[in-house]
Amino acid sequence: MSLRCSELTYAYARHGDAALAGISAEVKAGTLCAVVGRNGSGKSTMLRLLCGIERPASGQVTWQGLEIGAMREPQRAAICAYVPQRPSLSAAFTVRELVSLGQRAGARGLHSVDSALEAMGISHLAHRPWHRTSEGERVRSVVARALVQCSGRGLLVMDEPFAALDPGECARLMGVLRDVRARGVTVACAIHHLGIASLLADQVIWLDRGRLIGCGAAAGVLDPAALERTFGVPFAEHAGQVLPILPVERS
């Protein structure tokens, strides 16, 4: 079983520029794959294609041999949970009501509503209106909803879930993702923080300007010299992480 994309191409309708061009990759079942790359490299577009929210101009995405884009929405929701980069709601839900929406997918999820709230450290926010929470708290609540929705041996797709979190909450989320991976879930996650990616990911898909420039085991793809050529700053390995060495100016 695996998540596969074959020759994916996607272009924005308004101006026709290719966001992705000929992307082929495979994410092995039960692993965590980090999708990395510079701003505007096509990471978010690829994730939306992987979970069937968008349809490619050409190519296809398959999960366990079935084309995701051809599935009806209830079937996709039963196998795939999605965490967007910037969660939004049009209705006035409390945090608990939002997390409870994960139950509507029909599959039996890894977590109950209460255990998902606890796993993400937001039980105390359960009855707070969602729109009165911070950006990081909103992300954590949407991750909790995905934990309720996501079934064992299912698919979890996440777009930059670490971006709005403080270091302690990043560590919490890393623990949660390690747990769901151990329970058979396949995770595809866009990550800008390459230190987190190097600690957490089994595999890496590396995009640049809509093209695939690296795909494989994290230890092999996240090479400091290759990263420097793309990002324009040096990288070094430290305590199992690949970290950028940023210039420091002192007055």
Fold and architecture overview:
The chain is of the alpha/beta class and 251 residues long. It has a single domain, classed as P-loop containing nucleotide triphosphate hydrolases (Rossmann fold). 31% of the residues lie in helices and 28% in strands. The chain has a six-stranded mixed beta sheet, with helices on both faces. A four-stranded antiparallel beta sheet has the order 2-1-4-5, covered by helices on one side. Helix 4 packs across helix 5 (135-149). The chain starts with a strand and ends in a 7-residue tail after the last strand. The relative contact order is 0.17. The model has no long low-confidence stretch (mean pLDDT 91).
Q: Which properties best describe this structure?
A:
12 strands; Rossmann fold; six-stranded mixed β-sheet; alpha/beta; four-stranded antiparallel β-sheet; 9 helices; 251 residues; single chain
Residue share in β-strands: 25-35%
User: What is the CATH first-level class name?
Assistant: Alpha Beta
Distance between the termini: 56 Å
* Rg, alpha carbons: 18 Å
Low-confidence stretches: none
The major β-sheet equals: 6 strands, mixed
